Amino acid sequence: MAKVTVLLFMSIYITVTVSQNLYPPSWDPYCDVTISTEFVNITCNLKPEDQKLLTLKDLNDYTNNTAANVKYSVLWKCSPNASVTMRLPMQIHKLYSLKVFGCRIFEYYDDWNHQSLGSIKDSLVYEEIADCTLVFHILPLLLSLDNFQNVSNDWMCGPDTTIKQSISRNITSVIIEPNQNDFDNLSNETKLYVQKILFNILIANSSVVPDPFQWWNIKNIVDFDYQPECNYQKLEVLEVVMSETLHTQNLNIIFKSVKRQYPNMRVFNYSYNGYQLFPQEWKENMHKFPKLEYIDYSYNLISDIWNVNRFWDDYPGRHVVLDLRYNNITTLTTETISKWTELQDITLNIRGNPLDCGCFKQDFLNAVQDDTFFDGKMQKYKYIQNMKCASPATARGIKIINLSKAEMGCEIPPDDLTIYLVVLGVLAVVLIVCLILLFKFRKEIKLLLYVKFKVLFPWDVDKSAEMKRFDAFISYSSSESQWVLGHLVQKLESPFESHDALSLCIHERDFICGKSILLNIIDSIENSRHTIVVLSRKFIQSVWSMAEFKEAYEESVTKKRRHLIIIKYESIPEAELDSMLKRCIKSFTYIDVNDPRFIDRLRFSLATKSK
Asked: So where does this one cross the membrane (predicted)?
């Protein structure tokens, strides 16, 4: 009984001692700990109600209580919306491994200008943060940006002398904007400063939610040019996957640390990040990675790879895989693939890209289907034969090696195109002939359309019709009265098929008694859309008929109206015509009274604007 009591007491004592001496007691309800001669392994499971109860920095107060050779391994696993507090650069005494999954992380950036960070020796070797959300208040950051020149290398670089594996997957960020109470506590000068910084952030990051802590963005907002000197001599694996917010081991720091190399890096993974172009920075920086084996840009949006060779002009001899699977590569050429073979120690993996296998790619597809194309150095790209087409629809899902011309959309083999080219040529000739005939007989066609169907083209419609009292004033000599009144007027003032009767002005009927002949002529012409001149020898000899003609000519020429229509009642030698009549016959519509379609042409002339 005494032994049992002693053992029970010792068990309780060891548990209490572990809790009190190795990690914060507040972690007890959520964490399990196992201890070996070399490691203290702490595994914590948090639920949504466990709000920010775990603070990684608190661990510093307990890590010195262990033996000198003991290392800490911390694993935090969060249920949705569970929260923790963790600050870059995670400088904790003896922290060897840190893994955080599914947590909302607060205060992540709050130590950016903490000058005592260098007092803690680097120890972190393995870091993995996945499916987490970084939550931060933007106002404290904005108020401190004017001192950003004081940022320390320790914060920017993290545990650069010890880290071997850094993994960041699916990291998002949430910015908590200041409320009105926060602004009320600021001076007017400070408010203006904050508004200016917020405006500059929106301008610099107009298409995305900004991450103001990325130093290459901040230098667009505040005036400084800071390049951290990071020394990742032991880093072997760097993964930044599907991340809105890239932490300190990011692409820009890797490339901007001009004086540093990465002699042990083997894996570089930047997949699922929305890249549309292969980063050009590789051209100037490949020499920094003498042991690199695997570059992963899969599951991005890269479409242009024709010039990927230029990134390795001076690449040392070693085998490297460039993973470009599941991007947006649609077009390949035999020339492009042949150039890849010049990169003797590099293999490109483009599987899973949405290749276009349409008829225009037929030469390439025919070459790839031939096994001899992949002889020699090309052998490592023979997998392209088994890639599946994404377009056209007839080829979707079919392997290139099995693709037929019909599935490409090339159902007509090139040797059989002659008959189709001949048919196409005949159709082209027929079309040209039809266009020539349409142009040559365009007036007759328009006349036929109007007479039979009362159809006018929009540019031929005379919109002045509604603004005049008469459709036409008829000017003629008394010698032609019988023909004008007995034939012409009767035809035009009578409805014809679908055409309405026309309203005509005749001097015998419509001139106003008591008004001078000259004024009657002027008023009649002014109130008529057209003046019809019945041209005869007697007309030329009549003073009043010529007065009517000259007034109508004035309407047509001087006032730029399409007004005058001439009916050639009888043949008159040109020598008997005065100069004005000669010009008029050449410039305006004239209709021969002997034309079988005389009335049709006259009706059409009265309805259109053309001369």
From this structure: 417-439
pLDDT tens per residue, range 61-81: 888 777 778 899 999 999 988
Whether the Cβ atoms of residue 355 and residue 328 lie closer than 8 Å to each other: no
Locus of tokens 């720091």: 253
- Percentage above 90 pLDDT, the chain: 22
User: Which pair of structure tokens corresponds to residue 38?
Assistant: 């070399």
Average pLDDT score, the chain:
78
Whole-number Å distance between alpha carbons of 360 and 331: 11
Give the residue among 335, 269, 272, 289 at the shortest CA–CA distance from 308. 335
Q: How many Å separate Cα 394 from the centre of its chain?
A: 27
Question: Which domains does the chain carry?
Answer: 456-607 (3.40.50.10140)
Q: Is this model's pTM higher than 0.70 or not?
A: no
Closest CA to 293 of 237, 244, 248, 241: 237
Residue 550: is its pLDDT beyond 90? no
- By CB neighbour count within 10 A (0-12 exposed, 13-18 middle, 19+ buried), where does 345 fall? exposed
Q: Nearest 5°: CA angle at 195, between 192 and 198?
A: 150
Q: Please, where are the H alpha helices in 107-241?
A: 138-144, 153-157, 180-184, 188-204, 215-218
DSSP 121: P
Within 13 A of 69's CA, how many CA atoms are on the CB side?
3
Of 88, 104, 31, 101, which is closest to residue 62 (Cα–Cα)? 31
User: 374 versus 157: which is more confidently predicted?
Assistant: 374
- The single residue listed with the structure tokens 């970084």 is 134
Q: What is the percent of the chain where pLDDT is above 70?
A: 74
Question: What single letter denotes the amino acid at residue 464?
Answer: S
Q: Which residue bears the tokens 């055409």?
A: 499
**Nearest residue to 89 via CA among 27, 156, 36:** 156
